[in-house]
Amino acid sequence: xxxxxxxxxxxxxxxxxxxxxxxxxxxxxxxxxxxxxxxxxxxxxxxxxxxxxxxxxxxxxxxxxxxxxxxxxxxxxxxxxxxxxxxxxxxxxxxxxxxxxxxxxxxxxxxxxxxxxxxxxxxxx
Length: 125
Known about the structure:
Layout: H1 11-17, E1 22-27, E2 32-38, E3 47-48, E4 53-60, E5 63-67, E6 70-74, E7 79-82, E8 87-92, E9 98-105, E10 114-115, H2 118-124
Antiparallel strand pairs: 1-2, 1-10, 2-9, 3-8, 4-7, 4-9, 5-6, 5-8
Keywords: Isomerase
Pfam families: Cupin_2 (PF07883)
Protein name: Mannose-6-phosphate isomerase, cupin superfamily
C-alpha cells in the first residue's frame, strides 16, 4: 500500500486488515502513522528512540508491553505511551496476530516503508 493522502482514515479497520509487520501509511513534517502486525510468539524488538515519542494503539490480539522497567498486559482498546529515550518492547502474548497502529513524533521511518516481516525490518535497519 502506498502512503495515503486523505485526511480521515478508518484506522481501526485498516489495522485489523493489515498483515504486514510494518506499513507506513502517512508521514507529515512532525508525525508519522504506521500499521503493525506481530505474529503469534513474535515481538517488535527492544529499542530506544532518542528524540521520538511513540504512541501504540492496540486493536486486536493480546500482548505484553515493556516500557522502561514496567511490564504490563495490553489488549484491544489500550494505548501505550513511550516517551523519547525510553527502552521499550512489545510482544505478542496471544494465539492470534497482535494488531495495532502507532504514531511517531517526529517520523521514524522513511515515507512509504513496508516490511512484510520483522526479519525484513531488521535487515533494512
